[in-house]
Amino acid sequence: MVVEPVGVVRSPYREKFAVPRQPGLAALPATLELLPPYDRAEAVRGLEAFSHVWLIFAFHATAAQGWKPTVRPPRLGGNARVGVFATRSTFRPNPLGLSVVRLVGIRTAPGVVLELEGADLLDGTPVFDIKPYLPYADALADARAGFAADGPPPRLAVTFAPAAAAVLAAHPEPRLREWLAAALGLDPRPAYKAGSDGAFGVRLFEFDVRCEVAGGCVTVLELRRA
Question: Which Gene3D superfamilies does the annotation name (predicted)?
């Protein structure tokens, strides 16, 4: 069996460090550009009737590092080890991932582009298949979630220092502040640093973002074009 990408994701996450740990946690925009010969309008005919889609994709940034039989999931603080098949770790025998994302729209000229929201995918991620999300089959009310039974941890408050606020004020995208706050409020730092203070940097959209965490609040100190 030969498997090849049907499309490539374009997202604001320019490095693995910034990507949310699950889909739907940050409603940032992304697109999926279909590749030839799959970039045909008839291939997505009827898909506009669905609100969400499943994406089967490759963990391309870590694939060369191979797989590990046990991993340390962030939900367990990055300390306890469990089997790789009990997690959504990127270090898998076959480096494949599965995410459900909101389908905002579809453009069919030129080419085919799916407009998405809430993706947890690195910019440049290859996608191997697209399937519509079916609530009656895919949302299981009696499902158990093991060590991840609780919801995500509380979000951090996000504020912008004057220098960063000035960059946002001059930017043509009015929702950029909202999107940055949504991503940074998830605290992208390693799990073992949760609850601690300190500085960190991350690449989001076209910016190198420099931040500081103190007292449960993220302050964006600087937005520098990468």
Answer: YaeB-like
